[in-house]
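Box 3.1. Reading complex inputs
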Amino acid sequence: QKEVEQDPGPLSVPEGAIVSLNCTYSNSAFQYFMWYRQYSRKGPELLMYTYSSGNKEDGRFTAQVDKSSKYISLFIRDSQPSDSATYLCAMMDSSYKLIFGSGTRLLVRP
Amino acid sequence: GAVVSQHPSWVICKSGTSVKIECRSLDFQATTMFWYRQFPKQSLMLMATSNEGSKATYEQGVEKDKFLINHASLTLSTLTVTSAHPEDSSFYICSAKSPGGETQYFGPGTRLLVL
């Protein structure tokens, strides 16, 4: 079993839809949780990072962490074609290494 | 803030030559940087952890004599692919640990093609 499981997608939604991306993890020692967006042939771009259980909002993005269920989510409101990318969840271990999910490819159709 | 740059963005070289890739944190100091490799349609694979002023720590299966890492200052780490071969062709990405240690910021990546 992988330490971090992520829905592989691809996920195709119409413009304006609410997108839900999810990851589960098995290591309860993970303390920081991140979402990155990666466009083709580019490095990952940090969208949000969270530490505690609960919600964190930044513009159209909301990150949610449920440590008791070992489950994290990223919600994208009013999705735009420019949001089409691969979304990677990542967890940080005690040595500051990131453990990535496999990534979910998102396509937002105009 | 929190910008990480890489140079070059792409490089083509002949088999047997060495290639150096630079990773810089532009607006913060990074005691720890990381080097990743990514194949098409796959997630990032950590190659090594680079700590300023000390030897890099390599992940299992990564040849330290082939992938030389130097972290001589708090804003610069370099990865040198020695005696490159076609199978080393890949997308190499660096990241820098944030000053508070809560996240990593990534560079734009370097695409290497070995002919």
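In summary: The mean pLDDT of chain A is 94.
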